[in-house]
Write a structure and sequence with these properties.
By secondary structure, the protein is mainly alpha-helical. The protein is built from ten helices and four strands, in the order ααααααααβββααβ. Helix content is 51%, strand content 6%. Strand 1 and strand 2 form a beta hairpin. Helix 3 packs parallel to helix 6.
């Protein structure tokens, strides 16, 4: 077990990590070749450019825009998120990177969200991009723990992934949730498991890992 503090992160600490993740991801994206931007990820039908574009959208959403987008998506929350990202991804890649850099330091949030939502998005989608490109991307354990708790307690928007029927135990930070057979490993891998990235998480976990899907 590492010496990472067991205390929950406060709002300022959450935003500091959001800024760091936005900056480091922008650095990664800036160096990509054209074909890497078009690489398919394991996040549905999204390419790297769609995932990256998605991470620039929420900080600019107003209540009015959310209502309009929901109407456009006929009330389907997941369709709204998908379609808004795909439209944003039509921009030139340099503009996508610039838009991501432009929200470093911003404290704007999409309606009904807290800093934990952009943090969760950045950590998980940052992994979606890195894994698709065969890159290694570190995930701060304390930030991953905050995001794992957010997924565990998610009510709105509806959690699209079922919670594993298992006892999840982090090996690099104090964090345990659930009941049943034990699944243990780094909290970053447990976060990927909780967000439906079973195939990516499984090699780093011990225990009866549920099959994807």
């Amino acid at each position: 077990m590492s010496a990472v503090s067991d205390a929950a992160l406060d709002t300022d600490e959450l935003w500091q990590i959001v800024d760091q993740e936005r900056a480091s991801l922008a650095d990664l994206l800036e160096g990509l070749r054209h074909e890497e931007w078009e690489t398919r990820t394991r996040c549905g039908d999204w390419r790297v450019r769609d995932v990256a574009a998605h991470l620039t959208v929420a900080a600019g959403f107003t209540y009015g825009q959310v209502v309009r987008e929901m109407l456009r998506a006929r009330g389907d929350w997941n369709r709204m998120i998908h379609d808004s990202a795909v439209r944003e991804a039509e921009r030139p890649v340099a503009e996508i990177v610039a838009n991501l850099r432009s929200i470093i330091g911003s404290r704007r949030l999409a309606p009904t969200t807290s800093p934990r939502e952009p943090l969760l998005d950045l950590l998980v989608h940052g992994q979606d991009i890195a894994l698709a490109l065969g890159r290694h991307r570190e995930m701060p354990p304390a930030a991953a723990r905050e995001s794992a708790d957010r997924v565990w307690t998610m009510r709105f928007p509806p959690r699209p992934w079922p919670l594993p029927k298992a006892r999840l135990v982090a090996t690099d930070i104090e964090w345990t949730r659930g009941e049943g057979e034990e699944i243990s490993g780094p909290v970053s891998a447990l976060l990927l498991l909780l967000t439906g990235r079973t195939e990516a998480a499984a090699p780093r976990l011990d225990g009866a890992i549920p099959k994807a899907g």
